[in-house]
């Protein structure tokens, strides 16, 4: 068995007698791994070790007893793990000193080494870079949530994990993962959580195999990693040969420890002492000259030259904690000064003026929400955006309402239950047509059920509106356009109501997103031009000669939402609403004057002038940009870091 394949097996051989004799820590185990490999390589006899067991110095006697017990285990395990002869390193670094950890790493790397040994605690402080299979293995057998979060980070973003931890509350995230992903919001997240729970259970189940359990568990992670699988096979060779091996959790932990390291660069890593039998260079520190084992004293006790046990090393002339703290500080300073390599490089300056275009409310609202996404989407048009399940839900519900109201024009002429049945039937048909557009069968089923609940809520509100004042639904999904200033605007109005005998109209727009819960704040947004939709729809109907009594947003998002309708009652010349309505729960209202609407139109046309005439030398990111569902996020060098995002929506 090659040296590269023996790390996990050898660690297991040493761990069994060492942990039984000393109940020691992982750092001591690392040193014993290194020393046991060295005595085999040096050909130290049983007699020499037996003599050292009687040494007057208790620490030397203990080391000798453990190593002698390890040798017995080694011989009884399998000839496949016999230690091959390894020529001790000839590179002499013993007199080489460094003022910092960075300098020590540079010295070692210049001498041709690709790895250096350091104490295990130091590797942990610098950040262990586990292979994906090892992260999953740790998550399956550890009891805390930290290792679970590290494994889940491959499939969930930071926001999802933070939200899941909050939802877990007093329970652990691990428990929430087991209960069908109950700690996760969103159908897609829950499905992935359930998949992860099944995967971890399969890894644990593989650990119950009588032979080859570690290799089976690594394969059950679903991650193809030849190096980790080889280490697991090597370790299984040891454990399968023992009559009473430790629990599988202990074996898995030893495997994970054996392959842990931290990446300094693409071609250089720091590994714990004893994790690599190829005798890499070692970095030592002023406050840790000999570690838990005094190698020089032990070598003298068994009659060997200590140089047989010590590979090339560089001493950092600082305590370990101080050296690591300085190294981390230098690395952080370097990272902050370097251009973010995961983001596009800045381009040269210049003013970008949009070509003449037809504007819509959605385009203008996007500009307010995030000018940078407006630039990507409407001036670059670089990618085709993939529809989300919520977008498909909105499209389906709009289609069902359009079909319903082409037949149900005057609600008072129908029975409420009859209209509910018709809308549910139209929803079923629309969902059936769009079934393959949903991300999963679960999302399809859940959103279809939600839509049927919203349908009953919608019909109840529809009949309450008709009871307030008779109405006729005169238009559905009608295309409108209007020329305001030098710009043409286009839009599709979801529904237009008017009294059966004629009169002022009501404009309604269905919303699948959350509706503003403060009508005065929404009116402020309309007045300033930050919300374009209702003002533009008002202008479009006025251009057709209609008097407008009300413009309103109607939620079709979720029947449990507190805000169901947000309406702006248009005040006439006398300052009174054209058509008063009675107050109802979930229906929010504000009075919108003609001056408010005129101010909104003026603000919108000024913004269009700025986009198509003045131009911008920089498109900024919005206050709360929609990065999580933006197709251009990966191309945006100014997107906020995850920890800076506002996850309030």
Q: Which residue ranges are poorly predicted, with pLDDT under 50 across at least 5 consecutive positions?
A: 1-5, 78-91, 643-649
Q: Which structural category fits the helices and strands?
A: alpha/beta
Question: How would you sum up the global shape?
Answer: elongated
Number of helices: 24
Helix content: 40-55%
Average pLDDT over all residues: 79
* Radius of gyration computed on alpha carbons: 35 Å
Topology:
Layout: H1 7-22, H2 26-42, H3 46-52, H4 58-77, E1 97-98, H5 101-110, E2 115-118, H6 120-126, H7 132-141, H8 146-152, H9 158-168, H10 173-178, H11 187-206, H12 213-220, H13 226-239, H14 248-258, E3 262-265, E4 268-272, E5 281-285, H15 295-301, E6 313-316, H16 320-337, H17 361-369, H18 371-380, H19 389-407, H20 416-433, H21 441-468, E7 472-484, E8 487-498, E9 505-511, H22 519-528, H23 533-543, E10 548-555, E11 565-570, E12 587-592, H24 594-614
Parallel strand pairs: 1-6, 2-4, 2-5, 5-6, 9-10, 11-12
Antiparallel strand pairs: 3-4, 7-8, 8-9, 10-11
Helix pairs in contact: 1-2, 1-4, 1-13, 1-14, 3-4, 7-8, 7-11, 7-14, 11-12, 12-13, 17-18, 19-20, 20-21, 22-24, 23-24
Concise summary:
With 649 residues, this protein is an alpha/beta fold.
Brief descriptors of the model:
649 residues; alpha/beta; six-stranded mixed beta sheet; 24 helices; disordered N terminus
Report what the structure shows:
The structure is a single chain. The protein has 649 residues and is α/β, with parallel strands linked by helices. Among the domains are: 3-334, no CATH class; 387-468, no CATH class. It has 24 helices and twelve strands. Strands 1-6-5-2-4-3 form a six-stranded mixed beta sheet, with helices on one face. A six-stranded mixed beta sheet has the order 7-8-9-10-11-12. It is elongated, with a radius of gyration of 35 Å. The two termini are 57 Å apart.
């Amino acid at each position: 068995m090659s040296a590269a394949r023996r790390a996990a097996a050898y660690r297991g051989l040493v761990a069994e007698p060492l942990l039984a004799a000393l109940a020691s820590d992982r750092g001591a185990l690392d040193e014993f791994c290194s020393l046991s490999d060295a005595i085999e390589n040096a050909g130290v006899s049983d007699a020499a070790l037996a003599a050292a067991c009687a040494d007057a110095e208790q620490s030397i006697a203990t080391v000798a007893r453990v190593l002698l017990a390890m040798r017995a285990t080694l011989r009884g395990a399998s000839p496949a793990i016999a230690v091959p002869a390894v020529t001790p390193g000839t590179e002499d670094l013993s007199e080489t000193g460094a003022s910092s950890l960075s300098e020590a790493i540079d010295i070692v790397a210049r001498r041709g080494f690709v790895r250096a040994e350091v104490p295990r605690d130091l590797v942990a402080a610098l950040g262990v870079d586990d292979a994906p299979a090892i992260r999953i293995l740790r998550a399956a057998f550890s009891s805390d949530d930290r290792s679970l979060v590290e494994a889940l980070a491959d499939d969930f973003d930071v926001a999802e994990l933070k939200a899941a931890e909050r939802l877990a509350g007093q329970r652990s995230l691990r428990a929430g993962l087991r209960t069908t992903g109950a700690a996760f919001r969103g159908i897609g997240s829950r499905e992935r959580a359930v998949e992860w729970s099944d995967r971890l259970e399969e890894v644990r189940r593989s650990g119950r195999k009588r032979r080859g359990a570690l290799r089976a568990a690594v394969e059950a992670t679903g991650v193809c990693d030849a190096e980790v699988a080889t280490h697991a096979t090597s370790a299984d060779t040891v454990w399968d040969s023992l009559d009473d091996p430790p629990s599988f959790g202990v074996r898995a932990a030893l495997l994970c420890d054996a392959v842990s390291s931290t990446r300094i660069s693409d071609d250089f890593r720091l590994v714990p002492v004893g994790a690599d039998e190829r005798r890499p260079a070692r970095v030592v520190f002023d406050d840790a000259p000999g570690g838990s084992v005094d190698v020089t004293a032990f070598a003298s006790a068994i009659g060997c030259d200590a140089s047989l046990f010590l590979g090339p090393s560089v001493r950092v002339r600082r305590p370990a904690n101080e050296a690591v703290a300085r190294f981390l500080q230098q690395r952080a300073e370097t990272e902050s000064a370097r251009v973010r390599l995961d983001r596009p490089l800045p381009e040269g300056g210049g003013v970008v003026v949009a070509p003449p275009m037809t504007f819509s409310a959605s385009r203008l609202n996007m500009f307010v929400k995030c000018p940078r996404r407006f630039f990507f989407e409407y001036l670059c048009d670089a990618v085709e955006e993939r529809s989300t399940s919520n977008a498909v839900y909105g499209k389906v519900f709009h289609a069902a309402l359009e079909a319903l109201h082409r037949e149900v024009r005057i609600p008072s002429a129908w029975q409420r239950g009859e209209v509910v049945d018709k809308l549910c039937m139209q929803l079923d048909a629309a969902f059936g047509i769009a079934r393959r557009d949903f991300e999963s069968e679960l999302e399809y089923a859940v959103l279809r059920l939600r839509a049927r609940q919203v349908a009953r809520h919608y019909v109840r509100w529809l009949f309450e509106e008709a009871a307030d004042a008779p109405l006729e639904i005169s238009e559905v999904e009608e295309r409108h356009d209007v020329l305001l200033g030098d710009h043409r605007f286009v839009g599709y109005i979801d529904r237009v109501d008017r009294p059966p005998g004629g009169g002022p109209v009501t404009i309604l727009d269905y919303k699948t997103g959350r509706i503003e819960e403060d009508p005065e704040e929404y009116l402020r947004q309309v007045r300033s031009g930050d919300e374009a939709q209702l003002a533009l729809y008002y202008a479009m109907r006025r251009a057709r000669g209609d008097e407008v009594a009300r413009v309103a947003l109607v939620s079709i998002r979720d029947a449990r939402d507190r805000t169901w309708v947000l309406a702006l009652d248009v005040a006439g010349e006398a300052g009174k609403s054209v058509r008063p309505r009675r107050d109802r729960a979930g229906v929010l209202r504000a009075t919108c004057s003609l001056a408010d609407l005129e101010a909104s139109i003026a603000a919108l046309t000024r913004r269009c002038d700025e986009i198509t005439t003045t131009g911008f030398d920089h498109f900024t990111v919005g206050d709360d940009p929609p990065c999580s569902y933006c197709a251009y996020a990966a191309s945006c060098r100014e997107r906020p870091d995850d920890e800076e995002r506002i996850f309030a929506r």
